[in-house]
Sequence to fold (523 residues):
Amino acid sequence: MYTLEIALFTALLPIPFIILGYLRKSMSTLISSTIIYLAGLVPIILILEARIPTLELITIIQHTLAAPLGVLIGIVINEYMGRLRAGGFWANAFLLRKVLPVLYIFWLVYSGVDALALILSITLLVIEWYYFPTDNLSLSLTILHTLVLLFMPIPSIPIFSVLITMILDRELVRGVYNPWFIVLTYSVSSALAYTLLGIYRALALIIPLAYILLVALVYTFLYLGARITIRTEVPLRAVQGKGFFYNLIIESKPRIKARIDIRTQGNVLIKSPINSFNGVSSIYAYANFWVGGVVRPTLTIILKDTRGLVKVKREVEHPPVVVIPRLTYLLGLYQRVLSGRTVRGLGDVVEVREYMPGDTLRRVHWAKSIKLDRYVVKVLSKFVSTIAIVPYASSMDVLGKMESMIMTVVTYLLNQGIIPEFLIIDPVSLSITSIRWSNDQVTTIIKVLNTLRNIDVKFRTRSYGSELLSDLRIAYQESLLRALMRTRVETPLILIGEKRFSSDVLKVLQSLFGYDNVRQVLI
Fold:
């Protein structure tokens, strides 16, 4: 009877101390409650020894450790419940590791004391609580727990090994350590444990190792077998050479969890990886295509599991992008302005003259013809301005700006009733090409835009103008001046070009035609 009473008393004794540690979470509570408890425990043990001569040392140890271990468990429960509300279960799984030495000691005390295992458990308890409530030396302490399990009673090894495996999995998810280094460590250690201690004690290392390898195998099959697609919310249309931003939606069937890194070709740029992919995710992308037509670049998606065990590469097609050629886009943008502006429609009627064979009926002044009783045609004033173009650009971006600027200037002149004529000045060969405005305005614009060239160079300095010595630049400007003097140029004149290639040309034009007659649009 007394034995049953003692067993019940021993089993229930830690409960009030667990409650005390939960309610009063402090180390002072641990120390004070232990001192008071031990002071009151001495007379109880003396009374029990008098009534029960067979009272064993193990029972005395159980009663002695009930207070401090119970308070420790209560403190951990309090800390864990607070962190659970803030960060979730797995984010605070390390608190479970800090209470495991307490469980080791309870198991040893209640099932039979193993001196070496008890010493190791108490040492581990001191180390864990030295760093409480932080998580310093997390992986090292987790591996140390595994080594302590090698000396625990055999029935407890699988139970505690499963708990250690859960904590080790949490360390892998944090992504701080190389997981395959951990696998190598456990593989070598489990082989040594099997050789020296036998299969049952080696389970402390084999169970975590088997779990890690199984997880790696499962994720490998999932990543290789999943169907991954990339789509957009709306069809993508772009202009050649004009970058744009858009959203890409990545989906997988079945839903998989992974960290995703996307490697793209030069036309598509994705900067940030997806650190938390759960079957569907959206990512911001930038693209700039230099070839017209329907484009479907291939993206390389690298799938990594959250533990860093598996890395699988998958090739996925980008959604189709309709790339409109730049000339088509510009001509379409200004088509309405250009279509209503022919040479015959520009200028004001200044006088009439007799109709001559070859004159078009559109030029006949019908009101004057009826009044004068003979056919007369309109004589229009023609205001002409020259657009001088330096056709070289250092990049596709600058080339696109030059094309847009040419179209803008042409549109402005036409709206003012001014006929544009073009002068293509090659600063390298000093050749000068004249292109006159014609009735087929679209052909004229295409001919002008086709003279532009992207030389695709990167300059290391910020200096503008030709990279020549001063004497050579003077000689260069004189040669350009002589070439321009042999060419008929209508003023006023507008110079369009990239600044670094056009500064010498601008000086020559200003010296030849005067500052007031030369306007500049330099990029």
About this structure: The CA atoms of residues 146 and 457 lie 61 Å apart. The first strand starts at residue 227 and ends at 231. The chain has 16 helices and 20 strands. The mean pLDDT is 75.
